[in-house]
Design goal:
The complex is a heterodimer of chains A (about 350) and B (about 725).
Chain A lengths: L15 E12 L3 H7 L6 H6 L3 E12 L3 E5 L6 H8 L7 E6 L2 E2 L5 H10 L1 E4 L11 H12 L3 H14 L15 H13 L5 E5 L7 H18 L2 E6 L2 H7 L2 E6 L2 E6 L1 H6 L4 H7 L10 H4 L13 E2 L8 H5 L5 E5 L5 E6 H8 L6
Parallel strand pairs in A: 3-8, 3-9, 6-7, 7-8, 11-12
Antiparallel strand pairs in A: 1-2, 1-4, 4-5, 9-10, 12-13
Helix pairs in contact in A: 5-6, 5-7, 6-7
Chain B lengths: L1 H8 L8 H17 L6 H4 L9 H15 L2 H23 L10 H7 L9 H15 L2 H16 L3 H31 L1 H16 L2 H12 L3 H26 L2 H9 L4 H12 L1 H21 L8 H10 L3 H27 L11 H4 L1 H19 L15 H39 L3 H34 L2 H30 L8 H32 L4 H23 L4 H14 L6 H8 L3 H25 L3 H9 L4 H34 L8 H11 L2 H33 L2
The chains are: A alpha/beta (about 350), B mainly alpha (about 725).
């Protein structure tokens, strides 16, 4: 085995839109007292012994503008509770949450409703559509809550319905639609008020694999158009790798690692994260950009590989040459680094560790 | 629990388990019973000093409430409000020339001072249209024909009196139940207060509601409506709580994330999503209201119940049957309509569908109503068919029943005498023999075996109430009747239910032929009676020649038989049984007294037979449901292990279905208790008879205490059965 391959760190490029610090959510008879007794950070044993359950454990995360953060974890890991704390559907026990500089936990009910009416949209796992309303009325629901006029509502709703490709179904009722279509309605509804922040709670988990794939593509397309700040929850590691700018992996209420997919795969921070990455074909996840080394004055011949291509997709090019280094181009086509061909090949032909 | 820990801590050698305590208590009960001749009187029967003057106390309390506190002002005001609503409803519905309850100025200017009841034709048309719109033309036809029957058979006025009471009681019950349910859902302490009250309210027999209502509100239709509202509200409360609680949290969260305020979430998300459950509650309210309005005839509510009571008391079977049919038709119609409403799913119209297509039913309805109004101008019969001009089949039924009785009465009398002398009287004596302390000990044993000290205490306290109330002997008679009825109901319901849920026999096998033969025979009998009734009706209108009559009979027979055969071809046994249960339950319970009185006359045999008919229903229903609920994979696993049919039944299906069957048994006991009380009309000697007497004397305290006695027995059985079923279910992981 060669020396471990290092990859570049992914960093926040913009100001954070959502910032949470030392966030706790504890269920049980007296959560506040428990936190106070342990100086705000009880150990897992202390929580368990006192008969409490810590669904979110000292989580600190920053999410940048336009970033897509995927929160990944198995069921019971606290990912749903975390996103509900961030949208304040659930009151956190302790910690700070700032949304666009505003202290979310300090908002009164009126302020919270205003925030949701203007800035937040959310998609739910089981669609959560109102069964007695048509597609159009479901999509227009948040606008109606906001008190917008009938015609305005209708026009905006039709716009979003078109955006998610449900034109012609606007008079249907939810039960007349397939699962994938129902979730499109859910997505349209969450986008109707043009939110800045978009929460998606396992939106595709209730769909079968082929439809899920299709919906992921659709989601990526919408993301390109809308450029929103997104928090996406999933229990599916492949889905997380496929969609994320950064992934936060949760275990037992705590965040184990927050990083780009490339780094999570190449350098799992904990043994738990490692277990997920174990069976992943790394070459399909890691991008050329992440493997690239600085030019350092080297002059490299040959056709530059795009930085956002995965190593797996470069297989033919890697084998078809015997150069030691290949040039890597950024999105504008300017060569800004090189990758070591042997390292890339190692990744490509890594033996299945199992 | 505490006992178990105590036992664990006790020094070695002293180890006892709940079962031992139960056996010890049972042994005590047996011992006391055996020693009865030697026991002092105070142990055999509740001594005088033990009996509290509860009913006097209650009477004094109500007196104080009425006269000293001035509660009567409130009750009179309330009664007046309900009375006004009733006047309004009956002015619309009942053709009695009673004016609308409006101020004179208004009524003189608009000319609404004389009766302008809605013509029966409009009801029939509306029934047809609403039924068709809610489900299908078949339901529409059922509703339309129900009204036609009521009008043509001269039941209109009574039926409309009953319906106007239902029309006032249902909205009141629904509104009250919804508000209470929503409050209980919101505030936990309120639910904790409400739940035991609901349990009590649903286990007190109908009749016990009537007397306090009479005291506070007097006699008449408004009192009947108030009693009905009190009786019909609990299921609405329950369904509202259930429905609001069952809404998926995601739906609520989605509402919140859409920026809805609390009120908006409630109005736009929670209540509409709980629509189905809430409407099931409405359906139950309607059925309870109808049942209670019929029974409220005992406190002077006019309508079908009142007439039925008159006819029954003078044993005019034909007329009773016609009223019974009216009640059943109305019950089935209201039940099906409200169910169809609960099940109706919104259907979308494509954009650009013209108005007249979207509202086709409304247009059809308006057209038909206009036609009907024109018809009323042309002939009065389209408005109202006078009773003396109405058709009646009562002579037919009377003749048929006489015929049947002539044929059956001798064997029935023999059966009755045998049962009375050889079976029932000894059992009754056996129930009265044990000292009351022995009964308490036995009850405690059962309680202890099921739920330890806590359950034992609960049931003992409930049963001890019987002793304290001073109605111990009467209660034991009630207990005897219920026990006999329940044992027989189980003996009938359990095997039949199990048989019905067995897999369908394959075509051509002996079992299949047997089924077909039974079905054909049933169809033939039903069609023959139906055809005879049809011919009879024709005879009264235009008397045909014998040849025509004969061929008419055959044609009707063939048509009816063909129709039933077509309709029931794919009905499986369990579905047929469930249908039968539904039908039996839509009848007001005292209808079952008609046939049994005719057969056995007035005595315990008739009462118990009537109770069995009604009490078997839940047993059957829950057996079928329980057998259906057995996971198919387990049955398949047993099959693949090479189990025979009987082995599968014995080792897999029955044990797994047993908790559900126990709930059925529990309900059978409840139904039987209620029915035994109602059977008091035909002269039994138990608590029910005393309730009747209390009613006659208008003794509130006494009637309430008697009602509580019945409720105490019911709640004790309920406690034991639900505890046991819950324990079993948990153990089986269902």
């Amino acid at each position: 085995m060669a020396a471990p391959i290092r990859v570049k760190e992914g960093a926040l490029t913009e100001d954070p839109v959502i910032r949470c610090k030392h966030l706790w959510k504890i269920y049980g008879p007296a959560p506040e007292e428990l936190l106070r007794a342990h100086g705000g950070a009880p150990s897992p044993e202390a929580v368990r012994e006192s008969g409490h359950v810590a669904a979110v454990r000292d989580v600190s995360i920053e999410i940048g503008k336009g970033e897509l953060l995927v929160v990944m974890g198995l069921s019971g890991s606290g990912k749903s509770t975390l996103v509900r704390c961030l949208s304040r559907l659930v009151e956190a026990t302790a910690g700070e949450i700032e949304v666009e500089g505003e202290d979310l936990r300090a908002l009164d009910e009126k302020g919270l409703i205003r925030m949701r009416r203007q800035k937040m949209g959310m998609v739910f796992q089981n669609f959560a559509l109102l069964p007695h309303r048509t597609v159009l009325e479901n999509v227009a629901f948040p606008l109606e809550m906001r008190g917008q006029g009938r015609h305005e509502r209708r026009d905006r709703a039709m716009e979003v319905i078109k955006l998610v490709g449900l034109e012609g179904r606007e008079e249907h009722f939810p039960r007349e639609l397939s699962g994938g279509q129902q979730q499109r309605v859910g997505i349209a509804r969450s986008l109707a008020i043009e939110p800045d922040i978009w929460f998606l709670d396992e939106p595709f988990s209730a769909l079968d694999p082929l439809i899920r794939r299709e919906m992921q593509d659709e989601f990526l397309r919408l993301r390109e158009i809308l450029k929103k700040t997104i928090v996406f929850i999933t229990h599916d590691f492949d889905e997380a790798l496929r969609l994320a700018d950064r992934i936060a992996i949760m275990y037992d209420g705590a965040v184990e690692q927050v990083d780009t997919p490339d780094r999570i795969v190449m350098e799992p921070a904990t043994e738990y994260v490692g277990r997920f990455t174990h069976e992943i074909s790394k070459a399909r996840v890691v991008h050329a950009r992440a493997l690239a080394e600085p030019l350092d004055g080297r002059i490299v011949d040959g056709k530059a590989v795009p930085g956002d291509a995965t190593i797996a997709s470069l297989g033919r090019q890697l084998i078809g040459t015997d150069a030691e280094y290949l040039p890597v181009a950024d999105s504008a086509g300017v060569v800004d680094g090189v990758i070591n061909r042997m390292r890339a090949l190692e990744l490509l032909f890594a033996e299945d560790p199992s | 629990m505490t006992l178990a820990t105590a036992a664990a801590q006790a020094p070695a050698g002293v180890r006892f388990r709940p079962a031992h305590v139960a056996w010890a208590l049972l042994a005590l009960a047996v011992l006391l019973t055996l020693l009865r001749p030697a026991l002092p009187d105070g142990i055999v029967r509740p001594p005088e000093w033990l009996v509290w003057p509860i009913s006097e106390g209650l009477n004094r309390f109500f007196d104080w409430l009425q006269n000293d506190v001035g509660f009567s002002v409130v009750t009179r005001g309330f009664a007046a409000a309900v009375g006004w609503l009733l006047d309004l409803a009956s002015a619309l519905l009942v053709p009695t020339r009673r004016g609308y309850p409006l101020p004179d100025v208004v009524c003189q200017n608009i000319g609404l001072c004389t009766g302008h009841a809605i013509p029966w034709t409009i009801f029939a048309i509306t029934g047809f249209c609403v039924g068709t719109w809610l489900r299908s033309w078949k339901l529409g036809l059922l509703c339309g024909l129900t009204f036609v029957y009521l009008a043509v058979f001269g039941q209109w006025q009574w039926a409309m009196q009953t319906l106007s009471q239902v029309a006032v009681a249902v909205p009141l019950s629904v509104a009250l139940g919804f508000v209470l349910g929503a409050l209980a859902w919101r505030k936990q302490w309120f639910e904790q207060v409400l739940t035991p009250l609901l349990n009590l309210a649903q286990s007190v027999p109908h009749l016990s509601y009537l007397i306090p209502v009479v005291v506070f509100f007097g006699v008449g239709d408004h009192a009947g409506v108030i009693a009905t509202v009190v009786f019909a509200t609990p299921p609405m409360v329950r369904m509202t709580i259930l429905g609001l609680r069952k809404v998926p949290p995601e739906v609520i969260e989605s509402g919140q994330m859409c920026g809805a305020t609390r009120w908006q979430v409630m109005r736009h998300a929670r209540v509409p999503t709980a629509r189905a459950e809430i409407l099931v509650g409405v359906n139950q309210v309607i059925m309870q209201c109808l049942a209670m309005v019929v029974i409220a005839s005992f406190i002077g509510s006019p309508g079908l119940g009142d007439k039925l009571l008159n006819y029954l008391q003078s044993l005019r079977i034909g007329s009773s049957i016609e009223i019974g049919v009216s009640i059943v038709l109305i019950a089935v119609m209201l039940d099906q309509l409200s169910r169809a409403w609960a099940e109706k799913q919104p259907v979308h119209w494509e954009r650009g569908t013209p108005w007249h297509v979207r509202h086709r039913m409304l247009l059809v309805w308006s057209g038909l109503v206009i036609a009907a109004l024109l018809a009323t101008l042309a002939h009065d019969y389209a408005h109202e068919i006078p009773r003396r001009k109405a058709i009646s089949t009562k002579d037919f039924w009377d003749a048929g029943v006489d015929h049947l009785l002539a044929w059956l009465s001798a064997p029935a009398a023999k059966v009755r005498d045998f049962l009375l002398l050889q079976v029932l009287t000894p059992i009754r004596d056996a129930f009265q023999y044990p000292p009351f302390l022995a009964v308490l000990a036995a009850v405690a044993a059962v309680g202890w075996a099921v739920g330890g000290a806590r359950s034992a205490l609960t049931v003992v306290l409930l049963i001890a109430f019987l002793a304290v109330s001073g109605w111990w002997d009467r209660s034991m008679i009630t207990a005897y009747m219920v026990t006999v009825a329940v044992v027989l109901a189980v003996a009938i319901g359990l095997p039949v239910g199990v048989w019905a849920s067995l897999p369908r026999p394959s075509r051509g096998s002996p079992g299949w032929w047997f089924n077909q033969a039974v079905r054909m025979l049933g169809i033939l009998i039903v069609s023959a009676v139906g055809a005879a009734a049809v011919v009879f009706v024709l005879e009264t209108v235009v008397p045909p020649t014998p040849a025509v009559e004969y061929s008419l009979f055959l044609a009707a027979l063939a048509a009816i038989a063909y129709g039933i055969e077509r309709y029931t071809r794919d009905v499986t046994r369990d579905r047929f049984l469930l249908f039968l249960c539904d039908t039996v339950q839509t009848f007001p319970s005292f209808i079952y007294l008609i046939p049994v009185i005719m057969l056995f006359q007035v005595n315990d045999v008739a009462a118990i037979a009537g109770v069995i008919i009604y009490g078997t229903v839940p047993m059957l229903r829950y057996t079928v449901e329980g057998m259906r609920g057995v996971p198919a994979s387990l049955v398949e696993a047993a099959e693949m292990s090479g189990a025979t049919r009987m082995q599968k039944l014995r080792t897999v299906s029955l044990p797994l279905a047993l908790p559900t069957i126990m709930i059925g048994l529990n309900q059978t006991v409840m139904f039987s208790l209620m029915m035994v009380i109602i059977a008091a009309f035909i002269g039994t000697q138990d608590l029910g008879q005393e309730i009747m007497r209390a009613k006659a004397l208008s003794d509130v305290g006494m009637s309430l205490v008697l009602g509580f006695c019945v409720a105490a027995m019911g709640l004790a059985v309920d406690h034991v059965a639900t505890r046991w079923a819950a324990k079993r279910k948990k153990a089986l992981g269902l």
